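Entry type: protein chain
Record version: 2
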Amino acid sequence: MVHLQDVARLVGLIKPVGGGSLLIGLCCLAGLYFRKSTFPPIKVLFVYGGGFFMLLALIGMIWGPTALFYQLHRWVFPDGHQWFFYYQESLMSTMMMAPDMFGYIAVCLAAVSTLLATLIIMLVRNRWLVV
């Protein structure tokens, strides 16, 4: 129960950061658009984005996904708050297959985020080409 409250608190802290990041990103795109600035080629954006994800994947492979998952929990959650559960102790851990399922969730979120960012950038970039 304590871990679920910790996660809820963490999500509550992260939501405004995500909203602010989205707002800043859209403002930057609008600024580039209205200033008629040149936009980086799509290939360059894919190289930087792909390089970033490759770096994250490399870190995950070197350190190991389970060790990385545990270390992130040690950094994020307060000392003395239990976050490790054996499968037989928690129905939710059993259903979610934690930590294995979290890797798939992270990959799906990254893929959807990349797709949406690419679509937004292409829409803005194509609009520049028309104008």
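Comment: Residues 55 and 61 are 10 Å apart (CA to CA).
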